[in-house]
Amino acid sequence: MGDLFWILISAMVVNNFTLSLFLGLCPFMGVSSRIETALRMGMANIFVLTITSICAWFLNTFILVHAPYLRLISFIVVIASLVQIVEMIIKKASPTLFRQLGIYLPLITTNCAILGLAIFQTNRGYGLFQGLSFAIGAGLGLTLALVLMASIRETTELADVPDLAKGTALTMIIAGSLSLAFMGFAGLMSSS
Amino acid sequence: MSRTTPTEDLLRGIWKENPVLIHMLGLCPALAVTNSVANSLAMGIATFFVLVGSSLLVSLLRKYIPHEVRISTYILIIATFVTVADMSLEALVPTIHKALGAFIALIVVNCMILGRQEAFASKNSVGRSLLDAVGTGVGFIIALVMMGAFREILGSGSFLGVGLFGSSFEPWVIMILPPGGFLTLGLLLLGLSAWQRRSAGEGMA
């Protein structure tokens, strides 16, 4: 169990997907201007990452042993279609949930965080449960980064920043400082 | 879309509509692998290859791809070229392949490539699509190498692995670590908008 816990913590803060591996930057830049949207985007991400992890494990264990060169293509196709199917099921089963997460699902179906998770999981040889805790950790990490970023951006909107720095440049520099702060968590791993 | 000359197709992507610096596309690789010039160059060339290859194929097949499934078709074409690039790099330069790691495979989801297929290659002839892809690809390489040079010179005091400043130089380790990527791009964008503002101001005066 301790092993699973460390995988989760490591994916969440030490090797945070957005701030130290640069995965999933598009939603990070795009929807991080309001805390509420950021939170929903994070939830949708956790959801898709979990599905991805199960898919990747299944494909790796049962199918790709025979044809490793098809890995990329099959990951993309299977993950994208499964997310679509789940999206339809949610739409039928729980319209409220769909309204909360729905519009974000197509946006993240295969962004780099999702495919990145599948590839990292394969490269590290994680099993089903290790993969799941990796996925949940990564999702929580993305949510954390999104919400932190959104709260900072809500404040900077009211602040008097130089015209020159408004927009992406400022966001980048804020992200740099956040990433610097997250590097502090690296100590957590080596001491354990 | 307004008609453009072939020269414009080629030059547009290089600077005026640079994918990374102006359109903010393909940010993940631009930030993740630019901690040295050699890595940036390898990543740039791999992306260039995938972009040109898939543009060629998409524009060749543009009349046969049904509109409803075009995005999935583009992704399949791109994924095929990425698999080729991944395996060739692994065979030719194993050390760089190791340093780039999963990011070679992640070229598939580089929004810049899909963006060019959807916006240009699917609507234009083979020759013009190739010119457009070459221009955009070169623009991507330029942006990556700029960032890689900035980060390697400050962060390791070297350029392409050759020491520049002698032993008295204290490297800014932070520049080759993840925060350095964000900071470098932020500063680059600041410099760019300052420069644009200055040239716009001169134009009016």
SSE topology sketch:
The complex is a heterodimer of chains A (192) and B (205).
Chain A: H1 2-14, H2 25-30, H3 35-63, H4 71-93, H5 95-101, H6 104-108, H7 112-123, H8 128-158, H9 168-183, H10 186-191
Helix pairs in contact in A: 1-8, 3-4, 3-7, 3-8, 4-5, 8-9
Chain B: H1 6-12, H2 27-32, H3 37-60, H4 70-92, H5 94-100, H6 111-121, H7 126-156, E1 158-159, E2 162-163, H8 173-176, H9 178-204
Antiparallel strand pairs in B: 1-2
Helix pairs in contact in B: 1-7, 3-4, 3-6, 3-7, 4-5, 4-6
Q: Keyphrases for this structure?
A:
heterodimer, A: 192 residues, mainly alpha, B: 205 residues, two-stranded antiparallel ribbon, globular
Total number of domains of chain B: 1
| Rounded Rg of chain B | 18 Å
List how many beta strands of chain B DSSP finds.
Answer: 2
Structural class determined from secondary elements of chain A: mainly alpha
Elements of chain A, N to C (H/E): HHHHHHHHHH
Give the count of structural domains of chain A.
1
Report how far apart the termini of chain B are.
32 Å
Q: Low-confidence spans of chain A: pLDDT under 50, at least 5 residues?
A: none
Count of helical regions of chain B = 9
Number of strands of chain A: 0
- Describe the global form of chain B: globular
- What is the tally of helical segments of chain A? 10
Largest sheet of chain A: none
| Portion of residues within helices of chain A | over 70%
The rounded Rg of chain A comes to 17 Å
Percent of residues in β-strands of chain A? under 5%
Portion in beta strands of chain B:
under 5%
Can you give a write-up of this model?
The complex is a heterodimer of chains A (192) and B (205). Chain A is an all-alpha fold. Chain A has one domain. In chain A, 77% of the residues lie in helices and 0% in strands. Chain A is built from ten helices and no strands. Chain A has helices at residues 2-14, 25-30, 35-63, 71-93, 95-101, 104-108, 112-123, 128-158, 168-183, 186-191. Chain A starts with a helix and ends with a helix. Chain B is mainly α and 205 residues long. Chain B has nine helices and two strands; from the N terminus they run αααααααββαα. Chain B has helices spanning 6-12, 27-32, 37-60, 70-92, 94-100, 111-121, 126-156, 173-176, 178-204, and strands at 158-159, 162-163. Chain B has a two-stranded antiparallel sheet with strand order 1-2. In chain B, β1 and β2 (162-163) form a beta hairpin. Chain B is globular, with a radius of gyration of 18 Å. The two termini of chain B are 32 Å apart. The mean pLDDT of chain B is 85. The A-B interface holds A 19-26, 29, 69, 71-73, 76-77, 80, 110-112, 114-116, 119-120, 123, 164-165, 168-173, 175-177, 179-180, 183 and B 24, 27-28, 31-32, 72, 75-76, 79-80, 82-83, 86-87, 101-102, 105-106, 108-111, 174, 177-183, 185-187, 189-190, 193-194, 197.
